[in-house]
């Protein structure tokens, strides 16, 4: 069913819920993409796990530093910019992301809810002190070499990436803020997510249950046929700017 852009213009509280697809046009591989190079013999869920880190900290730290380098080299794309602009057009906007990159922040979005943590924030395995990794990218970061995780300045424990691994629970506060916003909004835009990873994947359903309209923006869309659920097939970097110009022209 066609989504009328005026519903965006008239929305009181919009939730934007993003996944890896919103960063795809910035050149950041999504999880569904075949992992290239050194990693093609691993599956991301195996690398993105505390078990994987315990087994081989240098391999996992090197994988994250390669991803951090890729993000540092990338730029926000028109989808990130349109979401930042939307926040200036509607009375209230809550941005919830599953992504661990900082492209929403670099596009000008504020108060982003990161359900799965952030790559630019490491923390000590021993004393849990968090180290905002203004950590310079080490030599070899870009080619995915194994890199020994740096040590904590306070207690000399090993640092770990500040992301939520499979099997780890999501940050309490972020998750409850996200559920609250989804239950309270009148429109939720779900952008670039395959809706596979739990419990983040529950967010659009919470909004739908609570009476909001839900719009999925994804090249591969599959709507549930619910009267208040819509799908716009396409790339976020093309669909979102068009949606905003139609809604606020
Ligand atoms: C937890 C940080 C337990 C790390 C990530 C069986 C059934 C149900 C659940 C489970 C199960 N077995 C295990 C679980 C739980 C597990 C889970 O959901 N597994 C999945 C694989 C089945 N979940 C967990 O482990 C979570 N924790 O449950 O803990 C617990 C409970 C209580 C107490 C203690 C413990 C933790 C999950 C968090 C994992 N960490 N990231 C890192 O990044 O390395 S998740 C990671 O994958 C990403 O962050 C991202 O969120 C996710 C991938 O999802 P998407 O964002 O959707 O990306 P994807 O590539 O899948 O899709 C991209 C989409 O974009 C596609 O649809 C594509 O078509 C589209 N697209 C492409 N280009 C574009 C585009 N769209 C728009 N424009 C484009 N240009
Ligand atoms: Zn420490």
UniProtKB/TrEMBL annotation:
Chain segments annotated as coiled-coil in the UniProt record: none
Per the entry, which co-factors are needed? Answer: Zn(2+)
Might you give the EC number(s) for this enzyme? Answer: 2.3.1.286
Pfam families the record matches? SIR2 (PF02146)
Q: How is the cofactor bound?
A: Binds 1 zinc ion per subunit.
- Which Gene Ontology terms cover its molecular function? histone deacetylase activity, NAD-dependent; NAD+ binding; protein-malonyllysine demalonylase activity; protein-succinyllysine desuccinylase activity; zinc ion binding
Membrane-crossing residue ranges in chain numbering: none
| Active site: residue positions | 116
Listed binding positions for substrate are 64, 67
Identify the Gene3D superfamilies for this entry: SIR2/SIRT2 'Small Domain, TPP-binding domain
> Please, which domain of life does this record's source organism belong to?
Bacteria
Tell me its family.
Belongs to the sirtuin family. Class III subfamily.
Protein name (Swiss-Prot/TrEMBL): NAD-dependent protein deacylase
């Amino acid at each position: 069913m066609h989504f009328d852009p005026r519903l965006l213009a008239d929305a009181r509280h919009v939730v934007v819920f993003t996944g890896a697809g919103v960063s795809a046009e910035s050149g950041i591989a999504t999880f569904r993409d075949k992992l290239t190079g050194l990693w093609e013999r691993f599956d991301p869920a195996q690398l993105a796990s505390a078990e994987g880190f315990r087994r081989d900290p240098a391999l996992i730290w090197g994988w994250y530093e390669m991803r951090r380098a890729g993000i540092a080299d990338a730029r926000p794309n028109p989808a990130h910019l349109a979401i930042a602009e939307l926040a200036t057009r509607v009375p209230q906007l809550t941005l919830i992301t599953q992504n661990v990159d900082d492209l929403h922040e670099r596009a000008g979005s504020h108060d982003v809810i990161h359900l799965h943590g952030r790559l630019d924030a490491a923390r000590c395995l021993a004393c849990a002190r968090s180290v905002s990794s203004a950590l310079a990218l080490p030599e070899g970061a870009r080619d995915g070499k194994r890199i020994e995780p740096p040590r904590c300045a306070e207690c000399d424990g090993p640092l770990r990436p500040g992301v939520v691994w499979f099997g780890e629970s999501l940050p309490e506060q972020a998750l409850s803020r996200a559920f609250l916003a989804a239950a309270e909004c009148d429109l939720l835009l779900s952008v670039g997510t395959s809706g596979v990873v739990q419990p983040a994947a529950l967010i659009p359903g919470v909004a739908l249950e609570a009476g909001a309209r839900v719009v999925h923006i994804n090249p591969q869309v599959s709507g549930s046929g619910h009267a208040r659920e819509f799908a716009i097939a396409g790339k976020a970097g093309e669909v979102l700017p068009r949606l905003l110009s139609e809604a606020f022209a």
